Records
---
Amino acid sequence: MTHRIAIIAGDGIGTEVMPEGIRALEATAKRFNIDLEFATFEFGSCDYYLEHGKMLPDDWFEQLKGFDALFYGAVGWPDKVPDHISLWGSLLQFRRRFDQYINLRPCKLMPGIKSPLAGRKPGDIDFYVVRENTEGEYSSVGGKMFEGTDREVVIQDTVMTRTGVDRVLKYAFELAQTRPRKKLTSATKSNGISITMPYWDERVVEMAKGYPEIAVDKFHIDILTANFVLHPDWFDVVVGSNLFGDILSDLGPACTGTIGIAPSANINPEGNFPSLFEPVHGSAPDIAGKGIANPIGQIWSGAMMLEHLGYKEAGDAMVTAIEEVLSEGDATVLTRDVGGEGTTASLGKAIANAI
Amino acid sequence: MTHRIAIIAGDGIGTEVMPEGIRALEATAKRFNIDLEFATFEFGSCDYYLEHGKMLPDDWFEQLKGFDALFYGAVGWPDKVPDHISLWGSLLQFRRRFDQYINLRPCKLMPGIKSPLAGRKPGDIDFYVVRENTEGEYSSVGGKMFEGTDREVVIQDTVMTRTGVDRVLKYAFELAQTRPRKKLTSATKSNGISITMPYWDERVVEMAKGYPEIAVDKFHIDILTANFVLHPDWFDVVVGSNLFGDILSDLGPACTGTIGIAPSANINPEGNFPSLFEPVHGSAPDIAGKGIANPIGQIWSGAMMLEHLGYKEAGDAMVTAIEEVLSEGDATVLTRDVGGEGTTASLGKAIANAI
Ligand SMILES: CC(C)[C@H](C(=O)O)[C@@H](O)C(=O)O
Ligand SMILES: CC(C)[C@H](C(=O)O)[C@@H](O)C(=O)O
């Protein structure tokens, strides 16, 4: 069975780490006898926008919908195209039109990676953030009135649907069930955001009835961010709305020191459309073009993709290879952000070899 | 000149730390010859709600508006009254009706307080979070449709006005001007929240024109929370919307290890209504009634109140007294949360003595 993967490298370091992601995937495919077929697309980047006046061609949906997965680099280059145009014109379209309603990110202390938190070591922190990925605070409903005057008022709706909330909660509860600690934490702010957030809480209570073996707690987002720093060991599966999930899934990897190398999966669990896998880091215009970007986020995203395609063992092997190369700590191999003097390619090759 | 202070202790440990806050204020008033007059109110607590069916009496506005400041403990006790009722019925009313449009919180590494961040010491972290405190994501506009069905949809508006955004930005820029580093960081999410947040960014650019000597940068809230953990030394004055400010002003003190002792000021800069001073910590039902709550947040809030009333030297003296007692590290005096075996009263008395 051939798995067709669409490659969109995007902008900046996205184009530099992508080849290493592919290298690692090819090595894994060979070892585990998986049949991957890659097709590369130029759209979904700011350069494409500058040429065509849009981030994607009109028929992007038709072009991509038949693939088994999308492997994305990074998008955005504010000096060329404002972020809200480049992101809404690409990544956020994929998430929404392909109904990738789960954004999943592991927060894990890795060997050889320095955590900014005092006294934490590998094994201490290991949790997932499950983020709602299609609705909530990221709406396109709203507008401006009395523009340009002192009475100017700008309004944007947060929109939560029962369908949207329940399905992300269901996914999170089922994920918690696969974990040894069977614990789920809900991010809320029902003490301040008085309409949507109490609704979110209600749906959590309702959903929890179907999962009596899961220990459920909730925190308001303000103190929850504090607890990520103070008690990262408390967490197992954390579920949040689009915005809260966004925040927590950057803060979590920051606490484990892995923000530059963390992966993320935008998943359509039913599989009626392709899911999308991308590193957490952005396009990093400041270091783009130097060949020094760390490719681990891209490679680790590839591991999540293989797991999603049904090859858990192969995905695990990729993560193990990453951990091995990090543990070895060879400065000629590692990139600068993790204490080495190597390049994107030297680190990518070492991981491919380890696989 | 007599300054009339309204005291509202609220719930849980609010009622325990308040007497220590008053003790410290009285000591300071004596030393600096300030004339303070306290009046105590029972409303604004969950017990009041249970008795009267509302958090505040109908004429609360009339009763309180003539005071020079409100000194608040903590409100909320979810087992008695749901948070969105207790908070919206009290604290959030004060903030809104008294137009306390600034929420100001210092994030400062203090001597003797362990930061959860590796390798940081007093002096390394010292910044302010300025939060918009009356509008934005904390709106009361919205509702539910198709209730109880699969089509259920819940909507809540974020509302930003030019007046509301500009005045908090102005305050933040002027605060930055009083600081040696003259740096301002704006919290945004204009790449995802595509209507209100680009507007916020626009107003920052506009306001910055009037303050050419201030160095301005901005971060999206997700990476900004990460940077609080990774680079807390980058920040000087950080300004954010109601929700973003809320998150950052818990996360900031968490990073400095001071979340249990940090103060906050809800300020009406024009002074046409009283400002409100309260510790960052909540009512902490879990430790209420044991006499072990740390009163520093309440005392430090008192210091901010004196500074607001025009007694900067007196406020500074209170903070110095706190720092002294923390530095001494006498375990019989300090409460458990900061490594001692003392009580709310032992710590409160020590600080009052130091003053
Ligand atoms: C209790 C809650 C409504 C409040 C807020 O979010 O404003 C609190 O978290 C705060 O920051 O003062
Ligand atoms: C780039 C931005 C729109 C995006 C988001 O907020 O969803 C990013 O931060 C992410 O988390 O994937």
Note: The pocket of 3-isopropylmalic acid (ligand 2) is lined by residues A 87, 246; B 191-192, 222 (CB under 6 Å).
---
Amino acid sequence: MFALHPAFPPTSHELGSLPLCQVRLQLDARYSWLVLIPRVAGAVEIEDLDAADRATLLEEVVLAGGAVRAIGRALGRPVEKLNVGQLGNLTPQLHIHVVGRRKDDAAWPGPVWGVGTAEAYDADALAAALAAAKTALGL
Amino acid sequence: MFALHPAFPPTSHELGSLPLCQVRLQLDARYSWLVLIPRVAGAVEIEDLDAADRATLLEEVVLAGGAVRAIGRALGRPVEKLNVGQLGNLTPQLHIHVVGRRKDDAAWPGPVWGVGTAEAYDADALAAALAAAKTALGL
């Protein structure tokens, strides 16, 4: 039985579910950033998914990339590069980060993970980001 | 026509090619680390690959994960966690990092990219890593 790890809710907002993954907006206004969590109990590594789920996963990563670009446009900060990462060194439940990067962002050209402190969204920006992401994801 | 970006040869050693990707050993003895470069001209993001190549890509990522574990065993430092990253903020040609992590490694629990300076392999360890990776990859 799939259950979301308790580390996710305090740092991200649920957008809904695609065929494989729950999709969440990372609550860090510095970046257009989605997190995909395959709804497969016990999965830690990509190799823990079967081949069909792995194929679905990468399609959902591509879809999330489009949604990240949509968030960036909605917030007036168009995405210049996508970064995709599956780390899980701190939160073991399998999850994939899809992050929109810009040359003027807080961590460029390094990775975003572990750099500085998340900045809260203001209410208008959060609503715009959620709406843009949901439309792009068909949720 | 696919051509390898010149940033790769100074920092990695070619192991051979899978159906989609050229596979290279990252020349940093701190980590068991492979880099996959899809042999598709002009690809920058995962979305630049067609759906068939995307499915192949994730299978090659899983295969590379097994090879990274094999390198870790060969060097007496078994891998405890896999990290997969597609960044490309500095080198635009699409490439995917598959990195074996340990709680005692130089960057744990943060990401490896941009942390410290690569350490050269000594000749024996390099030969052992290359042999283990080639066997695991069937190359």
Note: The first helix of chain A runs from residue 51 to 74.
---
Amino acid sequence: MDVALVCVGDELLAGDTVNTNAAWLGERLAERGVNVERVTVVPDRVADIARTVNEYRAAYDAVVTTGGLGPTHDDLTMEGVAAAVGRTLEPSEAVLERLASEGGYAREDLAAGTADIPAGARPLHNVEGVAPGCVVENVYVLPGVPAEMKAMFEAVAGEFEGEERHVDFLVVDEPESALVDRFAELQERFDVIVGSYPGDDVRVKLQATDETELEAATEWLRANVEVA
Amino acid sequence: MDVALVCVGDELLAGDTVNTNAAWLGERLAERGVNVERVTVVPDRVADIARTVNEYRAAYDAVVTTGGLGPTHDDLTMEGVAAAVGRTLEPSEAVLERLASEGGYAREDLAAGTADIPAGARPLHNVEGVAPGCVVENVYVLPGVPAEMKAMFEAVAGEFEGEERHVDFLVVDEPESALVDRFAELQERFDVIVGSYPGDDVRVKLQATDETELEAATEWLRANVEVA
């Protein structure tokens, strides 16, 4: 299963906020064996949201959006997603009922548009806040506030499922350039994906679908490099 | 000036690494009045890098890439960028000379491809590491290791220049939904861009090209909301 994340928000583009949502979702999806193929941050503009969501929902199995939900003028994700799937926005009865019963919000007290989702979409309740998310076709619309986003993702996590992968990390105390030949040999000997991330040391990530294969590869590498 | 950032790396997609490079670059570019229109993370695959760089260099004034530089099998950014601009990769004499004179690296000791950049590109020296960056047409290729990326960006920062903007932040202790009308009035009265970022409180960002206008708008908002 291949997915793309579309993170909406001028504050992410201007660096006012670090995109920890994308890292958290990437990790949770990887745990479920799902490939994240793209993470794209777009501004708070309907046309940009719609165009990006549309391109990715055609190219990948699912799209997850974060951010841009709520009542203010810069909350435009629902409008962008509705445009992407060619639907109108409509208040969700299920959301209005839940906001009344759980949140104590009378309809007339809610800011205009609070319960709007694309027509026919499946609403996702916001157990940590007010603004609802939704699922429409293969697009999952989640909030931007991390606690709200995480709780809402957990409610749909079971709908994301790929091939199980096993992962090991090894920190190596050698320059990355010295490791080129051993990485080549490692990949020749074993059916593993090798990632090499330099910093003060080199962090090596090994991934395999077969656990025994991963263990053998990690053991071989450990015996053939200077482990930090 | 509108730019796009293309961040290369499986580790960013899988959430092993939080994309702090994008936030840092976004902030530095915003300070210079430059709009970041997209941040896209792509996997360590030549075709994906090439396609994304190509799309963005046509759509925006400049593209800045981070990550995927170095000698290992998963360092594919130079190859992707070369493909995007239709050039071959060639060892840079300037880079080889500098690695010898400053780094003490003899040519024969360097891993194959270490000094390769697209033919005719302007090399950018890596004062904090080994792998060079480059500028080719309107594409700036920077490393992924934050200290290396930052030092290399500073060497070209003067090439990024937009309209000066003034920015103020205000933290408001009211629910976001209650602020809708005042945000509308604020935008009617003053020539400012208003961003609203909910969390425990609501963080409001005001931007204007005119400093006096910004001060007046901030003063008006401060007088009309519950400041936290």
Note: Chain A touches chain B through 57 residues (CB under 8 Å).
---
Amino acid sequence: MTLVRDVGEQGVLQKLKAFCPSDVIGDDGAILALKSSESLVVTTDVLVENIHFSDRTTAPEDIGWRAVAANLSDLAAMGATPVGLTVGLSLHGEVSLDWLDRLYQGLTACTSTYQTAIVGGDVCRSPVVSLAITAFGQVAPQRAIRRHTASPGNAIVVTGDHGSARAGLELLLQDEIPQDLTPEQRQTLIDAHQRPRPRLDVLAPLYALLGQQGCAGMDSSDGLADAVIQVCRESNVGASLKAEAIPIAPELRSWVGVERALDWALYGGEDFELLLCLPPDMAAELVQQIGGNAAIVGTIAGDRAVQLQTGDDWQTLSQQSGFQHF
Amino acid sequence: MTLVRDVGEQGVLQKLKAFCPSDVIGDDGAILALKSSESLVVTTDVLVENIHFSDRTTAPEDIGWRAVAANLSDLAAMGATPVGLTVGLSLHGEVSLDWLDRLYQGLTACTSTYQTAIVGGDVCRSPVVSLAITAFGQVAPQRAIRRHTASPGNAIVVTGDHGSARAGLELLLQDEIPQDLTPEQRQTLIDAHQRPRPRLDVLAPLYALLGQQGCAGMDSSDGLADAVIQVCRESNVGASLKAEAIPIAPELRSWVGVERALDWALYGGEDFELLLCLPPDMAAELVQQIGGNAAIVGTIAGDRAVQLQTGDDWQTLSQQSGFQHF
């Protein structure tokens, strides 16, 4: 097995160049043309070995796919079409070239699926492997999806199932294969975790409905509850959500029961769907056009509470203090 | 002393928000307007604790300044004006808030000096502190400075002194203070290392001379020899350089002698000046307009050899294999 230390920096760069378009390599930076009337959207993420990913649970191809998908989802969350991304890779000499190759296979499988590319990067030595990805996209400024523009009366749309990514992770962490899932159902949930799909496909039908105006929204990468709470906080509004309306994969519901499935949908995170706040008629039209399991899950309210209705029960959702990473 | 682990992620984010323009915070990404006729230029760098910087030799303010300066120099090297940059910060709980504050003081001292700003970022936990910076700029595409467009007959301009950054590092690493430098001279060399100045100021006079055309060039961050060799390789040309013409600070020459000073100028790196290849008359005019220690140091030649003339001696420069980081 060839290791990074066997080939040195030039060997690594040579390998990685194969994954970048040849016309953007060779200068101090990449030059990219943007549509003249559009603004630049920029988003960045750092992923660290054994904190955000681990070789023990995730194949390098999936680490790569997920890293790109998370950043493209942030672009979709702003209404932006991808233009390119840069990858800052930290690694040490004991990393194998095979691992590196598979990581970049995963990165580029996702970039090419979404018609974009790695257009620059940096490789440096570090005792800890990490990936710093910056993605940039373009959007007509008046159409940008922002968190602070939700209005009372807006319907809240989610573009697909929630909870499946968390369920897939659970399946990967369990040694036993649950008897109440078929192999296909199991794989569907695992795919939701390993190969999340940023909802860039939603932008075209959304813009066709919106015309030149924008709408409020974000992605649900930190869970559906977090997305609703963030949008409400930034917009100075509240929301009422209907638990029964939240799209959850039937196999998930039958596997872990309604209550846990709802908990994972609200707090599991990493489903990378979009949450959008739109006038009700437009919301209904969008849900129909997107198809799949897109749904209207609630309404934006004038007061500042975020409430969830389950049957006749109402509970107030609040931000979980779950992300104290240090 | 308050540590990162005492305040958690929210506490860190709260602190860092103060260093970003308030209108770009709160969404999944930042939205930036570009001039409509210009292309986007992107460059990225990762810096790792104890590899690219160390608290033992460098104050956090200087780590921050240098990190931004290196990226802005890459933009200048492409002829691009900065639009903004993102900072992906990896840190652990034992980092002090004071260190973090001083790091961001340094980052923003450099961004504000060059009329740009931190427009996005990510903070994550890692056992190793690192900084991943991606800088964005804009340039009219026909004006971009590229490495592959040097032509035989071009004069080779460097925008200022070389070797001083390497000398400053040497002074910081030495315990003894050399007797043959005044305190002011010593500080000048140390400043060259700690507070390098990306040569964005060169772009306006350069463009005034060039009109709508571009020119070949890059920055000298990996040493003057490397810059000449890279441009020649990408352009399929050679060069002849005159050692006596290379601008070297007089205090450096008198401190370490001509030979070592020249070695540091050619191979020391991190001077962050620009190397530009221009028609001779335009080169002379640019050198005069920039002033300082800008100089014409040689000529682009048709064959592929890169040669250095020292008195009557000629030597061929070749890429040192010095950057095998693993």
Note: Chain A has nine helices and twelve strands.
